[in-house]
Amino acid sequence: MTSAAYQKSLVSLQHYLAEYRPYLERAIAAVKVLESANPESEEFSDALAELHVSATVLEPYSEGMREAIDQYTEDLPEDRPIAS
């Protein structure tokens, strides 16, 4: 694969990572609160709402992320195998 295609795929992957990560971090933080907070508390309700929003945003991004990963791996130069 050409270097230009590889670079384009890498930029696309990095773009998805930059947009995906903040919502993923918010979702993880919400899960941690849900694991320890009283289910009847406002903290629990707020965390549940945050997780719902994050999951809603992450769902379509996950599809784009998978596509970006697939394209990146397809465009890797032949002499640069993926570590297993």
Considering the chains and any ligands shown, give keywords for the structure.
84 residues; mainly alpha; 2 helices
Share of helical residues? over 70%
Query: How many domain regions?
Result: 1
How many separate helices?
Answer: 2
Strand content: under 5%
Q: What is the overall silhouette?
A: rod-shaped
Order of helices and strands: HH
Give a count of the beta strands, DSSP E runs of length 2 or more.
Answer: 0
* Low-confidence segments: none
Q: For the report, how would you describe the main beta sheet?
A: none
Mean pLDDT: 89
First CA to last CA: what distance? Answer: 20 Å
Rounded to the nearest angstrom, the radius of gyration is 18 Å
Helix-strand category: mainly alpha
Commentary on this structure:
This protein has 84 residues and is an all-alpha fold. It has one domain. Helices cover 81% and strands 0% of the residues. The model has no long low-confidence stretch (mean pLDDT 89).
Concise structural overview:
The chain has 84 residues and is mainly α. Helices cover 81% and strands 0% of the residues. The longest helix has 34 residues.
Question: Secondary-structure map with pairings?
Answer:
Elements: H1 3-36, H2 42-75
Helix pairs in contact: 1-2
